[in-house]
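Appendix B, Record 12. Input sequence as logged:
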Amino acid sequence: MYNIRMNKVILKRSSRILAGHAWIFSNELASSPKSFESGSLVEVIDKNNNFLGIGYINSASLIAIRLLTRVKENIDHDFFRSRIIDAVNYRKWVFGLDNLSCARVIFSEGDYLPGLIVDKYNDCLVVQILTLGIDRLQDMILDVLDKVFNPSVIIMRNDSKSRALEGLPLYKGVIKGSIDKLPLINEDGVSYEVDPMLGQKTGFFLDQRENRIALSRYISGGKGVDLFCYSGAWGLQLCKKGANVTGVDNSDVSLNMASRNAVLNGLDNRFNTVRDDVFNFLEQAVKNRDVYDFVILDPPAFVKSRAKIKEALRGYKDINTMAMRILKKGGILATSSCSYHIQRDAFLDVLRDAAYAANRNARLLEYRYQGRDHPVLLSVPETEYLKCAFLEL
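Logged structural output:
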């Protein structure tokens, strides 16, 4: 029963929310968000007093309100349990699985739980809370997660820089169990250790899993490079197919993880590592006229805001141009961008410009997105962030 009284926020413009978006900006409110307690739950209504939903508000954030629901319901244990179970069942359905051993089980707005990220690595849950409104509900959410999944380990990775924009502290830690032994996961026959404390993001890039597997269908040997290799997930998939891969990264932690994973799979005779800045590595490879059968280019986000888009596009063009120059005729480039602000058409334009600059013809084999455990809402375009293209040069 809906019985919780909360403050009401009036919208002066509601067309975007009525179209299905979950974000409300401060300039869409009839009054200043500073008149409300940041992090608190609020009812959202239009200027005619029509109910539009319930969300949480934060006057310190560029996004003043994030909607949790569009019906009158209590935001309690039952609410979160229902949302989390729905998210799990969605993944079981799309992957055709009875049990989820490894997946992103909660993807923020994509699962109608804005501000909450949860990754599952077998019996270990890694939780990221990105917003003040979810942070205030943390104890309730963690209790529900514990009851639904009953994991041996729960880790908080609240060290994302986006928390600072919400006025939240950055930290990480184990809140249940211990990680004396790192979680071990399997991706299409290749095993990986995941370090949820020292690794990037939550320890592993699950969003590229289906893309890595798809790329392996085109590779049956040859020599290639895995640039920004992190823990070696792209390269080791191809080593399993008979290829020889050099993983390049400027992080000793990442290269150590990649080397351990190669040994773990008995692929260390096919996988070697080089510690270098990727731009420097490519510049030297072009200068040396090195030639490869395939290049994997999976960089971190080059742009975090619209103000940096032009600079980022130049960076993507330069790095893809160099990658194309070291590919043999018939070679394959798997290239990605995880920058939301670089959208699909802009990314393809960058690749066209890079091919022209490299004096190469490129054929698009596949254009791909983030994995299905990172669901995209059509009404919230921000949920679609990963672009991945397979090109034949």
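The chain has a mean pLDDT of 95.
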